[in-house]
Amino acid sequence: MLLDSILKPRAVAVVGASTRPHTIGSDLLKRLIEFGFKGGIYPVNPKGGEIEGLEAYKTIADLPDDVDLAVIVVNASRVLEAVDQCHAKGIKGLVVISAGFKETGAEGAKLELELLERVRAHGMRMVGPNCLGVVNTNPEISLDACFAESLPVAGDIGFVSQSGALGGGILNILKDLNLGFAQFVSIGNQADVNAETALEYWENDPEVKQILLYMESIPDPVNFRRLASRISKKKPVLALKAGRSAAGASAASSHTGSLAGGDRAADALLKQSGVIRELSLRELFSSAKVFANCPIPKGDRVAIVTNSGGPGIMATDAVCGHGMQMAQISDETKAKLREFLPAAASVKNPVDMIASAPLEHYRRTVETVLADPAVDMVMVIYLPFLGLKDIDVAQALMEIRAAHPEKPIVGVFMTTSEFFSKLSEMQVTVPFYMYSEEAADAMKRLNDQRLWMARPEGEFPELPEDTNRVMQIFRTAANEGRHELTTRESLDVLDAAGVRICRSGMAHSEDEAAAVAEKTGYPVVMKMTSKTTSHKTDVGGVRVGIASEEDLRREYRDLIGKLEAKGLLEGLEGVLIQEMVKSKRELVTGIATDPQFGPMVMFGLGGVFVEVLKDVAFRLAPLTDIDAKDLIHSVKCVKLLEGARGFTPAQMDKVEETLLRISQLAHVHRFVKELDINPLMISDKDGEPIAVDARIAFDPEAVKLAL
Amino acid sequence: MLLDSILKPRAVAVVGASTRPHTIGSDLLKRLIEFGFKGGIYPVNPKGGEIEGLEAYKTIADLPDDVDLAVIVVNASRVLEAVDQCHAKGIKGLVVISAGFKETGAEGAKLELELLERVRAHGMRMVGPNCLGVVNTNPEISLDACFAESLPVAGDIGFVSQSGALGGGILNILKDLNLGFAQFVSIGNQADVNAETALEYWENDPEVKQILLYMESIPDPVNFRRLASRISKKKPVLALKAGRSAAGASAASSHTGSLAGGDRAADALLKQSGVIRELSLRELFSSAKVFANCPIPKGDRVAIVTNSGGPGIMATDAVCGHGMQMAQISDETKAKLREFLPAAASVKNPVDMIASAPLEHYRRTVETVLADPAVDMVMVIYLPFLGLKDIDVAQALMEIRAAHPEKPIVGVFMTTSEFFSKLSEMQVTVPFYMYSEEAADAMKRLNDQRLWMARPEGEFPELPEDTNRVMQIFRTAANEGRHELTTRESLDVLDAAGVRICRSGMAHSEDEAAAVAEKTGYPVVMKMTSKTTSHKTDVGGVRVGIASEEDLRREYRDLIGKLEAKGLLEGLEGVLIQEMVKSKRELVTGIATDPQFGPMVMFGLGGVFVEVLKDVAFRLAPLTDIDAKDLIHSVKCVKLLEGARGFTPAQMDKVEETLLRISQLAHVHRFVKELDINPLMISDKDGEPIAVDARIAFDPEAVKLAL
After folding, report:
1. Residue limits of the CoA-binding domain (chains A, B) (predicted)?
2. Which pLDDT belongs to residue B254?
3. Strands, DSSP E only, in B265-339?
4. Does residue B631 share a domain with residue B575?
């Protein structure tokens, strides 16, 4: 299935095996033998003879019939030929170590494309090119087809690395940290097999209990989201995505666009996929350690057991800083602790057994605290004290862990690195950290995974829109050679998409304006709407709080006069007369399009503060209903919606609906490039969200292509 | 001087020395001997005889005359007597290891106070009680009067620890990390010697090049700030202050008060003192390592040299994430690099020498990049590659460092812990980290210290205030048994303090209101001002945008009618008629009083957003002019002041002056407990900051005591 021919082959051929020392063709073969691959290992070399004690085959055609995987290390120019020969021989799996493809420029990219076409046509699967290889530590397979420095240690991690060199470095460190892995795939240029292939392959593999990804790019975000959001519900998926500062933000004309820079899109994708994003290798390993040795907790209530006050305080700081709770230990538990702890000990959380606590106190205290139903996780802190050995305390914790496998236990051992060296030679079943902050970070990861697994799946609701009307507006504008809609058109599109817009009417003369205002009811707002001038406010094209017809007529004449003086009458479509929504709460929502990840929905605080306070968040379209809720709750200003400061609570279902509707609009009509609803006002009266101003930019060529 | 008798004694007496193994009286004596103290070591034990091969003195009176320091380990009940005898013998320095004082409750606290009085009366200095001891690693002294687990390593750190057990743990880890220290003081209950004593003692000690503090409390913040802000200009001071989550926030009635929780005050104190605050032990050590091995850079331009792309990207992310700059390497430098690096290498920053880079490439690349005047610091990344040993690259870097001592070089070695074990046995002169994020964190510390050292000292400007008027307002209110001023009184106090308040007048009738409004000029704002009702808005006591006399009279009647209906007329002082300041920028400033740290000044975004967005910052009063500037620039909304979004730039000097004036008000009149200016409006017209509403709470008893 999928990658079986590559990760569970019956026999492996090394195409380009070599007798020359310190070449990949030599090292890789040695490694395969050294790690004890359980199937046949067949070197291929035109010279034949013997390599590393094995008979070398002169051609691929000469190979025995049980070869599932060919590891190819020949020069790039000879890879295609080798692939054809492998196909002829019935080989289904390829690992192309050879470099000289896309990474070298246009020529190489062409060669890579040819290679991929060949692989696809032959119905083969390929890891690479330009990669480090693959590993499977299952003892019945013992495949190490990889030229990393150290021999792998078996464990339950599935690890995908995009960077070859870094992948090797990470393998070294994993070994050093005593973190074993089940399978490793260095995807290199990821021409065929990529992170998603591995995710899917490991989805139901009981040997892989957590998945680690090192990524520099995510070529197919849609597929990644589809797979990762499903698989992360079954096992933790941790990702280190490099390239955060590479702010590929193109010049954007909207608020949403200008705030969408950096790696907002990648961040949104990983969040919506339930992938735990790590920002450094240290954190990646720290998290992997906790997932390798702890169950997912039932809640976020942490108890701390310590033999020193200071670290207990620091641990409390870190736990609370992560928004987890300090467990309220029951009176019963306290009484039990009092039975054996000395008077100077504190039986409140953090439980301070004092410096002289013997092993027996550690044992009984941890067991007693662990048994308290108000405790979901326990952090145990040890500071060296004369007569009590770190390793003995660690052993005791592992015994307790074995007896109580249902709750996470995390150890903080502020001792020397010698202790950690000792651990790396043991079969460890509890995650041990040097510092309490690291332990708290790790517990936060457990809690994040718990929350994600408990989060409802969410649905993509289908919301009716007047598609004909939407298309007609865009077609008209596209035919006029524009790439932005006017204010009126933008509001009309939103209206057609089912978004509540403020009541407005168009006027082309002073009298028309007065008539519309009469119908709307004073006070009103007057706004120019133009095919050429989108920055209305900058040219004095917006007048608010017009209280009477007299004022209206004066403002109308003034507005037209100013525009005329500035030579801006030409593109003028008319003047919008709008109801004046009574609201002190101005929000913003909109769409920005990431060149690679597609449309994203933004939501947050609007008005003059948008770009100053940046209290906004993003999610990739399409949003599920749960994504919409989540997006709303990920900005600080949500408190204004919930009714802080005496405000009428916002109609949250309608706010969510607004986000879902623009998400759908952008997802369905991919020619929509940028959209701003600023402000989206929350009515003081009844909390209804109302779009008061809008701006839409689009790709006219894409409109013409749309049906 | 100060602590010479304790840290540089000619001879040491151990009062309570013991032959019984595993007692402090035995361990401590052994340690003194083992570490090779250069002066006399005299055990004191009533039984006399020989202890650890030394003649024991039966009484303190019997001791030779060269004893400067007595280390006291006898039972708490016998400490006072011992101190008296030491005094009689002419001993000036005391380290009281014995526990049983303040930490045990009221009885112990009384004993500690007696002890302190005795020490003061005798003109002695004392470390402790309830401490771990002191260390001085200077080879001419070699004093280890401390019962930590491991023998100290010499270095240039001065280290003060409040927690005994944690201090010991830290000493272990420092040793493990090969971070030596010059002197160590475990201050325990800090009855006499505290962190400030040590800071002052180390100020001009060339052996102490950086100071590390572990603190759980800061008993004398004023003195701490005075000393630390001076000393941190000479050498880095790093602090780990535990107890962050202990949100000792009492119920506060003002915005400023409610936002002042947690450890805002400690944070402000450390910032204003130039102390680099570390939030975890890992970071504390990481920073100590960089300061121990690097000069302070001249700027923040970082160059990265690597043999692998991925870590280079991650390092760039981390450097940019800290707001430092990626150095723009000159064309000249690039050309020089091209001379020897292979074609596949990248000579832009990050400089990627590719995986196969030999030692010679490391050497030449680092030297070339280091020589570029556009480079202030260099991060060198090494990933294991066949044939190139980590330790050889490290050696090369140390040689380069010796030849170019003026620019920081930081190493990132993504290799095994074996490498770091090897380092700990070497004389290391370059800081080496496992991960690039740690190296970037460390470089940020260097840059923070550079910025602090370049920061002007600042002055406490004396600003004239009408003190008589201020006092009269508070006295009147205090005499009426109130602890809050009315709105009018609050604004009057600000006016007397020289803060620009909006023009307003008091009215006690409809006609008076009309007359005041006529003078003020429409539109006006109408506000109740009451001795009993401070939440004006909640009871409909604020009316804005009153445009005409007709409206004014109607609103006045309505206001009075509503108050009457609610039974709120009694405390009513009158109705304020205020000019309506035209402003879209509502800021907030104010005073909150921390029970321990005293008054703090807050500044940030005001209006309805204060508590939702929390875009505010704090500094301890009194502010220097530089503190005021710094406070203003530490909130996001400063951009609104600088003229973002087409606003008239605020008059920054006047905003600063406003902060300085309320700082002075609170600093001089300590009975002011809370003060809110919300909003502090920035005039649309000319950018002037104007206090539009205010609220002041005070301690009436303290007013009565004030002259």
Report:
1. 6-101
2. 63
3. 276-278, 301-306, 325-326
4. no
Contact across the interface for B645 and A612, Cβ inside 8 Å = yes
**Residue finishing a domain among B194, B216, B238:** B216
Shortest Cα–Cα distance, A669 to chain B (Å): 31
Question: Is it the case that residue A245 has pLDDT exceeding 60?
Answer: no
In terms of residue numbers, what domain contains A610?
A: 585-705
Q: Give me the pLDDT at residue A352, please.
A: 93
CB-CB neighbours of B104 under 10 Å: 15
Tell me if A416 and B176 make a contact (CB, 8 A cut-off).
yes
Q: Is the domain of B638 the same as that of B573?
A: no
Contact B421 A417 (CB under 8 A): yes
What integer is the mean pLDDT of A463-481?
95
In a domain, B591, yes or no: yes
Tokens 């409802």 belong to residue: A456
Predicted-complex ipTM score? 0.83
What CATH number does residue B18 fall under?
3.40.50.720
**Residues A48 and A194 grouped into a single domain:** yes
- Nearest alpha carbon to residue B278 among B246, B318, B236, B248: B236
CA A605 to CA A333: how far, in whole Å? 46
Using CA coordinates, name the residue in chain B closest to A645. B608
Question: What pLDDT, in 10s, does the model give residues A342-357?
Answer: 988 899 999 999 888 9
Residue A695, domain CATH: 3.30.470.20
Position B182, amino acid: A
The answer to whether residues B169 and A311 touch, using CB atoms and an 8 Å cutoff, is yes
**What pLDDT, in 10s, does the model give residues B90-114?**
999 999 999 899 988 899 999 999 9
Residues A422 and A333 placed together within one structural domain of the fold: yes
Q: How far is A371 from chain B (nearest CA, A)?
A: 26
- Over residues B389-401, the pLDDT tens digits come to 999 999 999 999 9
CATH of the domain at B528: 3.30.1490.20
Reported as half-sphere exposure (CB side, CA atoms, 13 A), residue A91 has a value of 32
Q: Are residues A599 and A647 in the same domain?
A: yes
Domain assignment present for residue B650? The answer is yes
Query: Residue B346 sits in a domain of what CATH number?
Result: 3.40.50.261
Which residues in chain B have their CB less than 8 angstroms from residue A438's CB? Answer: 280, 282
Rounded CA gap, A217 and A266, in Å? 9
Nearest to A636 among B310, B612, B645 (CB): B612
* Distance in angstroms (rounded) separating the CA atoms of residues A562 and A540: 8
Same domain? For A107 and A71 the reply is: yes
Question: Are both B196 and B168 inside the same structural domain?
Answer: yes
State the pLDDT confidence band at A611, using cuts at 50, 70 and 90.
confident
Give A89→chain B minimum CA distance, Å. 34
Within a domain: residue B221?
no
List, in order, residues 6 or more apart from B661 with CB less than 8 Å away. B463, B465, B497, B498, B499
| H or E stretch covering A192 | none
A153 within domain boundaries = yes
Q: Mapping DSSP to helix (H, G, I), strand (E, B) and coil, where does residue A657 land?
A: helix
How many beta-carbon pairs under 8 angstroms link A with B? 209
The per-residue pLDDT of chain B, averaged, comes to 91
* Helix segments in A35-177, DSSP class H: 79-89, 106-121, 164-176
Total number of domains in chain A: 4
**Nearest residue, CB atoms, B242 vs list A313, A609, A615:** A313
The residue-averaged pLDDT of A109-131 equals 96
Q: Are B172 and A384 in contact (CB < 8 Å)?
A: yes
> Which residue matches tokens 């007692």?
B23
**CA–CA min distance B91, chain A (Å):** 31
Q: Are A22 and B386 in contact (CB < 8 Å)?
A: yes
Pair A439, A536 in one domain: no
| Average pLDDT score over residue span B510-535 | 92
- Tell which phi-psi region holds residue B50, choosing left (phi > 0), alpha (psi between -120 and 50) or beta: beta
B337 within 8 A of B347, measured Cβ to Cβ: yes
Residue of chain B whose Cα is closest to the Cα of A537: B646
